[in-house]
């Protein structure tokens, strides 16, 4: 499994598991816990969650999945922007820790920018890190302008990474944010690497060029979409899978080695940005 070094120096796996839409339906809970545990068995110990997902339900699912094996997990969680003031961050983090049934969050992110001044959120993150409640902090859905603003603030250079929408269809960050992040030694964590659940994912996975590359490798289109992300320097992908077959598929994507020929075909079908684009969020 490839690894990526965060700006803090901590090393994390390049492939993890997402949890959006988990923890919403008690009838699916055991299957979701089982899927995350299967992923951990296969080496996908990095698990991304948020207080928002299932309004805490996803964190509870993660808490159950990591019970008794905390050391194998790397937990990423996120604070709502409306909880991102000094007191709010502390309280939200405590609630997340309780739901996760752990004493620390490995990486704590601001989910997206809201009305609270960034400097206040960064102060709160640094205080939590000092207390050992979080080990690293970062941001999500920050565009180039947000990053430059954050970098200039006290604590801004402590931002370990930025989690943004990035996949074969949504390549806008390749214009500026991705090269800039690389220059800073800051990884990008790619969310919705398969274009999320629903029609957009179905359209991506049915794309003839993607299907043709998958056939050449004897793998699935989803594995090619993930392998395309995983071959890029400083990129972490966090596909969400509740179906055990998908979990196995995703883990095996880390072993798919795309050729220059594959990459050319994919570039033709999913062109890189030709100009600056606003940061995609869905
Ligand atoms: P995604 O990972 O792109 O796609 C998830 C969907 O793809 C699910 O329906 C899943 O089905 C299916 N799937 C998974 N593996 C598959 C495979 N090998 N073959 C075919 N289908 C497969 O979408 P996402 O959940 O939007 O993004 C991933 C994670 O990123 C989230 O779960 C969340 O942790 C994070 N995220 C963060 C933000 C943010 O604002 N920071 C926003 C969105 C997402 P099953 O579940 O049935 O297996």
Provide keyphrases for this structure.
globular, 11 helices, 7-stranded parallel sheet, alpha/beta, 282 residues, two-stranded antiparallel ribbon, 9 strands, AKR, NADP_OxRdtase_dom, oxidoreductase activity, TIM Barrel, binds NADP nicotinamide-adenine-dinucleotide phosphate, NAD(P)_OxRdtase_dom_sf, Aldo/keto reductase
Written account of the structure:
The chain has 282 residues and is α/β, with parallel strands linked by helices. The chain has one domain: NADP-dependent oxidoreductase domain (TIM Barrel). The protein contains eleven helices and nine strands. It has helices at 29-41, 57-66, 86-100, 118-131, 144-151, 177-184, 199-205, 208-217, 221-230, 244-253, 260-269, and strands at residues 3-5, 11-13, 46-48, 74-79, 105-110, 134-140, 159-165, 188-191, 235-237. A seven-stranded parallel beta sheet has the order 3-4-5-6-7-8-9. Strands 1-2 form a two-stranded antiparallel ribbon. Strand 3 (46-48), helix 2 and strand 4 (74-79) form a beta-alpha-beta unit. Helix 3 (86-100) packs across helix 4 (118-131). 46% of the residues are buried. It binds NADP nicotinamide-adenine-dinucleotide phosphate. Residues 18-20, 48, 111, 140-141, 163, 191-197, 201, 220, 222, 238-243, 246, 249-250 line the site of NADP nicotinamide-adenine-dinucleotide phosphate.
């Amino acid at each position: 499994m490839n690894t990526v070094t965060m700006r803090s120096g901590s090393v994390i796996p390049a492939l993890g598991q997402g949890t959006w839409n988990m923890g919403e339906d008690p009838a699916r809970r055991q299957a979701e816990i089982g899927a995350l545990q299967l992923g951990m068995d296969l080496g996908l110990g990095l698990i991304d969650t948020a207080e928002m997902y299932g309004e805490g339900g996803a964190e509870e699912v993660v808490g159950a999945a990591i019970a008794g094996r905390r050391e194998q997990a790397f937990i990423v969680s996120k604070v709502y922007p409306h909880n991102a003031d000094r007191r709010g961050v502390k309280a939200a983090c405590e609630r997340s820790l309780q739901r996760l049934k752990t004493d620390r969050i490995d990486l704590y992110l601001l989910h997206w920018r809201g009305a609270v001044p960034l400097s206040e959120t960064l102060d709160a993150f640094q205080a939590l890190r000092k207390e050992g409640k979080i080990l690293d902090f970062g941001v999500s859905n920050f565009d180039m302008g947000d990053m430059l603003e954050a970098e200039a603030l006290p604590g801004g250079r402590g931002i370990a990474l930025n989690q943004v929408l990035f996949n074969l269809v949504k390549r806008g960050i390749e214009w500026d944010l991705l090269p800039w992040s690389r220059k800073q030694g800051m990884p990008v964590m790619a969310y919705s690497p398969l274009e999320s659940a629903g029609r957009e994912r179905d359209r991506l996975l049915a794309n003839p060029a993607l299907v043709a590359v998958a056939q050449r490798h004897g793998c699935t289109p989803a594995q090619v979409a993930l392998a395309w992300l995983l071959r890029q320097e400083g990129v972490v992908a966090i596909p969400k899978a509740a179906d055990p077959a998908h979990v196995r598929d995703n883990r095996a994507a880390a072993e798919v080695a795309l050729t220059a020929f594959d990459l050319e075909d994919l570039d033709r079908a999913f062109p890189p940005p030709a100009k600056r684009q606003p940061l995609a969020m869905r």
